[in-house]
Design brief:
By secondary structure, this protein is mainly alpha-helical. The protein has one domain. Helix content is 80%, strand content 0%. It has two helices and no strands.
């Protein structure tokens, strides 16, 4: 059976299938690798908020308390930098794979849809 353009009907082209595979692999990698690393920031921030509340409750914190608080601030800031770096990488990669998918979808639709004049 042939389609509108006298080409055999296919549900997909190899390019289309490869683009789909890249998008799915991206989301799988993101879920398995990137999101757990980003969750680390939220856990550290939550612990920091608890420590901050306890620190602020003390009327006169000692040097050890101040040093521990400063270490926790540094840890949260480092975690935030990692979070931002991963988030930037995720956004850039997502944009690239979705652009590739949209381009292959357009190519597929253009080759299988009739145009009337």
């Amino acid at each position: 059976m042939t389609g509108f353009c006298n080409k055999p009907e296919k549900a997909f082209t190899p390019s289309h299938a490869n683009s789909c595979k890249r998008v799915l692999n991206f989301y799988k990698k993101m879920a398995e690798n990137d999101i757990p690393k980003q969750m680390d920031y939220f856990l550290k921030k939550e612990n920091f908020e608890k420590m901050k509340k306890a620190f602020n409750a003390k009327s006169s914190p000692g040097k050890a308390d101040i040093d521990a608080f400063n270490a926790e601030v540094k840890d949260v800031n480092n975690s935030l930098n990692t979070f931002n770096s991963i988030n930037t990488n995720i956004n850039n990669t997502r944009n690239n794979v979705l652009k590739d998918w949209n381009d292959s979808e357009k190519t597929f639709a253009d080759s299988h849809m009739p145009y009337y004049k």
